[in-house]
Amino acid sequence: MEKWLGEWEAMYKEVCELITKGEHNEMLTAVEQLEQQSATLLDLWTLMDEKLIDLKQYVETFEAHDDSVYHSIGTECFEQNQIKRATICLSSEKANGQSEEWRRLFLAYAYLMSGKKDETVEQFIYLIQTAKQASVKHFSYAGLGCYYTVNGQVDRGAELFEQAKSLTPTSDVVYNLGVCYYLSGAFHLSAEHFELYAKHVDQDAEAICFHGLVRMKLNQSHQARTLWTQALSLYEQPEELTRLALLSEWYGHHELAVCCYQKALTKGADPTQMEHGMAWNYALGDKLQEAWPIFNRLIKEQPNNLHIKRSLYHLGRLFEEKQRT
């Protein structure tokens, strides 16, 4: 994630430089790349992880009451995220009847997490065609939906999630459909699914943040800001807060970006990076009285910091442009 944030910030600064130079064709290309990079991060944040958590919770709930739910060394490794070992164990273990369906399901997810494409598809399709238990079939459709989504076949992923939803409309499937419809450009459908998801899971900061992005795509900036403010109240990790700050900054919610950086600072994030972000957004929001003291102190403390110098240069150019107009 740290690498992604660095690359995103560098690309963002490049767009700013192209704007100040008036190089609009190059700017539009760079903006498109930046949009794609944001979407790539968002669509993969927790897609498979959410599905795995849901599967594990299902097993924990029912295995004490249902002998058909498979339990073995392989499933224990899977639940402990020892995916490589789980794959080896599950592929060599034997089971009978409905327990065999669960063994294959765990194996399919282990293959999915291991990046074994052919084996993943083979196991999920086999279970979709043969499983007698609705829960196993549901998780098979959803798992195969995850596979196709993360491999860029979003429409196919959405079809499979819809199949899973028709069997059991679990909240995680609704969430994944929201992701798929966002990626395919069906923003109204995406928003509907995130609204439905929020009725059942109202404290999922990642989903709320994603929902905010959908609202921005629908030109509903006020709703997006409300959602991102809610996400801000839930996020606790500096990495999460910095990511939200960058999104808010990019879409023009500079006051919210400042709040994100401020909270990240209290959570142990790098002080220079956070204060730089605060000053930059104060300036972009025309709050120069708040911005310049921070910039002046930072440049005195770190006179060779190229990021701070570059920001000051861009702001200077923007100020000159405003003076001329």
TrEMBL record:
TPR repeats lie at residues 138-171. The keyword rRNA processing does not apply. This is Tetratricopeptide (TPR) repeat protein. Keywords: TPR repeat. SUPFAM superfamilies: HCP-like. InterPro entries: TPR-like_helical_dom_sf, TPR_rpt. Gene3D superfamilies: Tetratricopeptide repeat domain (1.25.40.10). It comes from the Bacteria. It comes from Alkalicoccobacillus murimartini. Coiled coil: none annotated.
